Amino acid sequence: MNNKKLQQLADTYGSPLYVYDTEVIAAQYNRITTAFSKVKHSKINYAVKALSNINILKVFKQLGSGLDTVSIQEVQLGLAAGFDPKDIIYTPNGVSLEEIEKVATLGVQINIDNLSILELFGQKHPEIPVCIRINPHVMAGGNSKISVGHIDSKFGISMYQVPLIKRVVENTNMRINGIHMHTGSDILDIDTFLRATEILFDVSKQFKDLDFIDFGSGFKVPYKEGDISTDIEQLGKQLTKRFNEFCKEYGKELTLMFEPGKFLVSEAGNFLAKVNVIKQTTSTVFAGVDSGFNHLVRPMMYDSYHHITNISNPKGRERYYSVVGYICETDTFGSNRRINEITEGDVLCFHNAGAYCFSMASNYNSRFKPAEVMVHKGKEYLIRKRETFEDILRNQENITIS
């Protein structure tokens, strides 16, 4: 999306503002489906946690996607967006048996990553087929907080505990219809990912009534010029060949599943914030904006890089700035960045703001959450209103203190 359009949206809807371009979403979705087009049965389930606005979910339904969900609320959002329950998979972690049972009544695919819950669910509901999340003990991910397949992870049932899974299945007479893994986000090394898939194939051989294998996701997108990203086309070529071979060995055409989130929406999103103040110190020039990690936490939480451009002065001479927020503690979006000259009132654009940005926003410092706009087929839509003070008070009980 060009600077002129982004500036117009900032002028119309104010700042801070999230803007999503569904053309980019469709292009990424088509890219991954094309990469695996030579698999007879494949399915993409969009990871709702990346960006959960109901209108974004409707776009994915239109594209033919399913949904990957991690909470009963995300399942309910998917159903509200019009998804068929059979197109939703539910992969929670650390939730109660009660929540899993409630979700099961909605008719979606259940994915279990805990032996004790598997046994309890199998004893009570042996007629409901479930998927098993396996921990392959393969380290992948660009940050320790998003690497979930290693040996010390809280996610999944260890591949070394497969005999225990089989014992539970035999004792309860439950059906396992899928095997799943997720190694972590920001996968750079395809060979490491493929090594994990071989572990999943070995596990899958031990369950004779499968319908699908879910390979998770975590594909990396570029954050700046020259950045490395997951070569999805090469992965498609190599994994397609191996998956088709496995289906022949298994004696059944299984469905290959993925659950990308960031890969599909990260590059579709831009976050716009207005510069409140330029502050020169003895060593740094700060550009302070009308936002903070309450709206975009990734740089502070994950040390994530978001490219920052000045859309109000894109041809100005470049200078060095540290872009910071208005939260009353260290709140840095980018240090010592080379950006076209910034003056107070300019609008800055934070790129790659589609995934895990608004969905992780908060009301810290009692600040309002920003508005969201979607640009779809050339037309702009306000898909979330900016919060007001009434929203801050909405669920607080204002009691009389004597």
Write the H/E string, N to C: HEHEHEHEHEHEEHEHEHEHEEHEEEEEEH
Do you know the CATH architecture of the largest domain? Alpha-Beta Barrel
Question: What's the number of structural domains?
Answer: 2
Roughly how many Å is the radius of gyration?
23 Å
Output the CATH homologous superfamily of the largest domain: Alanine racemase
Write down how many β-strands occur, each being a DSSP E stretch of 2 or more residues.
18
Mean pLDDT: 94
Categorize the overall geometry: globular
User: Roughly what percent helix?
Assistant: 25-40%
Model regions low in confidence, pLDDT < 50 over at least 5 residues: 143-150
- Per DSSP, what share of the residues sits in E-state strands of 2 or more residues? 15-25%
Q: First CA to last CA: what distance?
A: 56 Å
Assign the CATH topology of the largest domain: TIM Barrel
Specify the CATH class of the largest domain.
Alpha Beta
Structural class: alpha/beta
The quaternary organization reads as single chain
Continuous helix count: 12
Largest sheet: 9 strands, mixed
Structure, explained:
- With 402 residues, this protein is of the alpha/beta class.
- It has two domains: 22-263, TIM Barrel, CATH 3.20.20.10; 266-393, Lyase, Ornithine Decarboxylase, Chain A, domain 1 (Beta Barrel).
- Helices cover 30% and strands 23% of the residues.
- The strands form two sheets. Strands 1, 11, 12, 13, 14, 15, 16, 17 and 18 form a nine-stranded mixed beta sheet that branches.
- Strand 2 (42-47), helix 3 and strand 3 (66-69) form a beta-alpha-beta unit.
- The chain is globular, with a radius of gyration of 23 Å.
- The chain starts with a helix and ends in a 9-residue tail after the last helix.
- 43% of the residues are buried.
